[in-house]
Structure formats: C-alpha cells, structure tokens
Design goal:
Shape: rod-shaped
Number of strands: 0
Structural class: mainly alpha
Largest sheet: none
Order of helices and strands: HHHHHHHHH
Distance between the termini: 175 Å
Strand content: under 5%
Length: 278
Amino acid sequence: MKKVFAFVAMLGLLTFGVNQTINAQETEAPATEEVAQDEAAADSIAADAEEVEAEDVVAEEDDEPQGIHKQLKVKFIEGSAGFMSLVAIAMIFGLALCIERIIFLSLSEINSKKLLEDIQAALEAGDVEGAKAICRDTRGPVASICYQGMLRIDEGLDVVERSVVSYGSVQASNLEKNLSWITLFIAMSPSLGFLGTVIGMVQAFDDIQKAGDISPNVVAGGMKVALITTIFGIIVALILQVFYNYILSKVEALNTDMEDSSVSLLDIIMKYNLKFKK
C-alpha cells in the first residue's frame, strides 16, 4: 500500500513538474516572439529612417545649384558631341586669332606724338642718322613708316611722300591680317548650329516614323539636340563678333594715327629741307 501511495505521489510530482515546464515554455515563447517582433520593427524603422535620410541628402544635392561649367558640360553632351565639337573648334580657333590680333595691335600702339617730336629735334640739329636710329629702334607701324621716309630724305619731298604712302598701305594690310579668318569663324558657328538643328529635326521625324505616333516623348530628343546646337552656335558667334569689332576699332585707330603721322613727318622733312638745303 505504501508502495502504491509512493508511486501515485511520484507520478503526481512528475505530472506537476511537466505542467510547470510546459507553462514556463509557453510563457517564454510569446515573450521571445514579442521581443523578436519588436526588434524587427525597430530594424524596419531604422531602415526607413536611413532611406528617408538618403532621399533627403539626394534632394539636397539636387537642390544645390550647379556651377556654370557643369551646366555647360551637361548641355554640351546633350547637344550631340559631333556638332558641338565642331562649334567648340570654331570658337577655339576664332578666339586664338582674336587674341593674336589684339596682342599685335596693342604692341603696335606707341606715343606717336613723342616720336615725331624726337625726330623733329634730331633733324633741327641736322642729325639725320640720329633721326633714323630713333625710328629704327621704335616698334610699330608709325615708326616703320617714318623710317622709310627718312631713308629717302635726300631724294626730294615727292619721293618721300610716295614712299610713305606705299609703305603705309603695306602696314595697313599687316594690321588687317587674319581678320578674314575671324569673319569666317563668326559665320561658321551659327551655320554649324543650324546644321545641327536640321539634323536634329530629321532625327525627330525618323523617331516619329518608327514609333508611328506623334508624342512629346518621341519628338523631344531630336528637338532638344537641335535647339542646343543652335544656342551654342549663336553664343560663339556673338563672342567672336564682340572681339572682331574691338579689333576693327583698334585697326581704325592705328590707320588714323599712321595718316596723321605721315602728314606730320612730311611737314618736318619740308622744314628740314628749307633749313639745310637752301
């Protein structure tokens, strides 16, 4: 009887222990699941926050204004590299010629009034060689014309005048050197842009024909290329035109200076002849 009672008691204790274990596991399992769900939710929130931050950073970068060189680079690429390269080459060569002319004309400008005063002072002293040296050591077309006149000072005033006029025309031609090439690039730049425009429109019509539909998305690509090439061609032409007009103004000023200096030189030589060749 005692054995039976002990067996029943042992069985009850085992049953009670098993039930406690099962209850504990059931209690821990929901807690673990809740923790796992909470951790997953936290990870999802963190990921969403990172995505939002990344989108904000991208939006801020998009909102930041780009530099003018970056914008020009983007538009240059969008405008078809073939025709845009031709327009860029025309601009480079045109600007190179403009800069060369500006430097040459700037170096050709001198104080012609002081030069003539020095020549007059030397001739009044009877120093013809000194007057020639002054002309020879001075740069510019005005000094070159004066030097040509001084070389023929002993041959008469008429000979000096013809020499000055002839050499003056040569110097005027030198001043206008390469201006025809600049005008060529001024005309070529918008022409290349218009050529790109026509080709872009042809591409747009080809896209319409292939798609069989006249939609903005189909036409936009070719039209965009056309307009960008035209804009860049006109901009290049305007830039070169400004430099060209500036060069022309300097050429006109130098031509006027040469004419005035030639007349003054003839007067100085005439006074020299009256004083020393009576």
